[in-house]
Amino acid sequence: MVEMLASYVAGQWYTAPDEGTLVLDASTSEPVARVSTTGLDTRAMVDHARRAGGPALRRLTFQQRAAALKELATYLDANKATYHELSLATGATRRDGTGDIDGGIGTTFVFSSRAKRELPDGYVLTDGDVEPIGKGGTFVGQHVYTSLPGVALQINAFNFPVWGMLEKLAPAVLADVPSIVKPATQTAYLTAAVIRDIIASGALPEGAVQFVCGGVGDLLDHLGGEDVIAFTGSASTAAVLRANHAVTARAARFNAETDSLNCSILGPDATVGTPEFDLYVKEVSREITTKAGQRCTCIRRALVPESMVDEVTAGLRARLDKVVVGNPRNETVTMGALVSLHQRDEVRDAVTALMRATEVVYGDPMSVNPVDADPERGAFMAPVVLLATGDRPEPHEVEAFGPVTTLIPYSAPADLGALAARGGGSLVGSILSHDPDFVRAVVAGAAPYHGRLLILDRDCAAGSTGHGTPMPQLVHGGPGRAGGGEELGGMRAVKHFMQHTALEGSPAVIAALGGGS
Ligand code: NAP
Fold it and tell me: Which residues line ligand 1 (CB under 6 A)?
């Protein structure tokens, strides 16, 4: 029988006694690991975080925490070859694995260096200037951020087992909040390998990180107002967690990053032969093939001028014809598998639902010929491009979390803001145009529905990190359907794990408490 993955609980590794859930290789269906939390003592975890991890972290200044993060990132970087091998079992190509693994480690380095530059060598962060309140200047106010005495429960999605953990862990460490990391079962073996190294590195004090490998059981029963639940995953799971008493009755802080029907808009000026047209076709095809389209930021709705649908379809066809689907261990493969057969079936079901409002203009959702793999035992799917055939809701509401996008023709640029908004709130949108008036009008309509907007043109293309890649310096999150949360964004992310308090008093006292400490 394959290895049962251990959880890390109150300074000890805990292995569940039952058979647990078997996790299979995405491309071959060979067993990789077993996952279970039967018998896990969640109370002990929360107590350990509060009594050991939190106090140990709070003895460190921001500068010392930044140094600890750098040590951690350096250690993980030296051990990453193991993670890359494991990542192949998730269906990810080596290139996909780089985004997850090197992207996660790089994010940790960025948080460390930004903290070193921007945070004080103390324990309290001031926010804004001292506010004069009383007449005569004897009474003032000052906003500060202080460390929470609680715990950050981090629940992650299957698609970024490394980056998804590290992008939450780094700001939590800087904020001095101990973390309990809970990965998605399907790819938990990769997160587990990194967690083992985090513990072995000794970079963080004992209790700063614990690990739940499997279901969280009654863990939320122990959380309240001093705690944070940082969730990434589907909107339906977010809704379940948001309705938990930990949030509704005890006001645990809840941040959700959920699914999103992200759009990419081709401007009417970006006709065939312009750099923006080529960039658009490249961006859409790259989005749906990277991680086999399993990125929350993937372009699901490609909004194109009615008159350019045929050209865009032809451009995508030319690019997607070169995609080699198969076992990511084969060097010729450019798009790997979905994470599991179950996930592939979910995506096929979503395509079936979308087909009520679309027709397939590229690819076959039900059939694929993967390289070096059995299509029955691996979760493979060909890239699929759909074309909306009328004005129905499905393309704006149904997320096919795989290599799938829908072309949605538009006739009036003035309608684009409203069209973008039909996604109900998105993580990211992009506008491909070199016409500043067009861009200005679209941004005004679309920005309130987006956490991030990429305006891609010939001038910034060479330096652009692309539509689908959240950067640690910029906000990741989105309103409405995208969860209403916010992560990353430089040192803003640290504040999400801290308490915001207005201090009031005499100028001398306020300066001594908040200023520069
Ligand atoms: P999911 O089924 O919602 O699972 C997400 C996480 O929640 C997993 O760790 C899962 O654990 C856990 N979970 C499920 N039910 C739970 C419960 N009742 N209590 C506590 N934890 C629970 O989502 P997924 O299938 O892993 O991820 C795919 C979805 O996530 C897509 O819709 C995608 O758009 C979205 N996503 C969003 C972002 C973003 O940044 N906004 C990033 C990535 C993915 P188990 O695996 O053990 O069930």
Answer: 155-159, 182-186, 215-216, 232-234, 237, 240-241, 257-259, 296, 399, 401, 427, 483
Residues 6+ apart with CB under 8 A from 148: 175, 176, 177, 226, 227, 228, 497, 498, 499
Residue 480 domain-assigned (yes or no): no
Residues 206 and 276 in one domain: no
Phi, psi dihedrals of residue 231, rounded to the nearest 5°? -115, 140
Closest C-alpha among 149, 262, 148 to residue 498: 148
Which pLDDT does position 516 carry in this prediction? 43
* Contact indicator for 303, 445 with CB cutoff of 8 Å: no
Spatial distance between the Cα atoms of 180 and 419, rounded to a whole number of angstroms: 39
Do 18 and 158 belong together in one domain? yes
Residues 202 and 286 reside in one and the same domain: no
Report yes or no on 182 lying in a domain. Answer: yes
- One domain for residues 246 and 385: no
CATH number of the domain at 283, please: 3.40.309.10
Determine the 3-state secondary structure of 20 from DSSP: coil
Residues 6+ apart with CB under 8 A from 428: 260, 262, 297, 450, 451, 452, 453, 454, 467, 468, 470, 478
pLDDT less than 50: residues of the chain: 516-517
Ligand 1 center from residue 63 Cα (angstroms): 33
257 is catalytic: yes
pLDDT in tens, 275-287: 999 999 999 999 9
pLDDT tens digits for 440-472?
999 999 999 999 999 999 999 999 999 999 999
Report phi then psi at 504, rounded to 5: -125, 145
Domain residues for the domain of 102 are: 7-259+486-512
CA distances from 395 to 56, 359, 389, 482 (A): 49, 11, 10, 16
Q: Rounded to an integer, what distance in angstroms lies between the CA atom of residue 441 and that of residue 110?
A: 34
Catalytic residue list contains 71: no
Total count of domains within the chain: 2
| Tokens (6 digits) for 240 | 């379940």
Q: What is the pTM of this model?
A: 0.94
**Is residue 169 domain-shared with residue 231, that is, in the same domain?**
yes
Atom of ligand 1 nearest to the CA of 237: 3
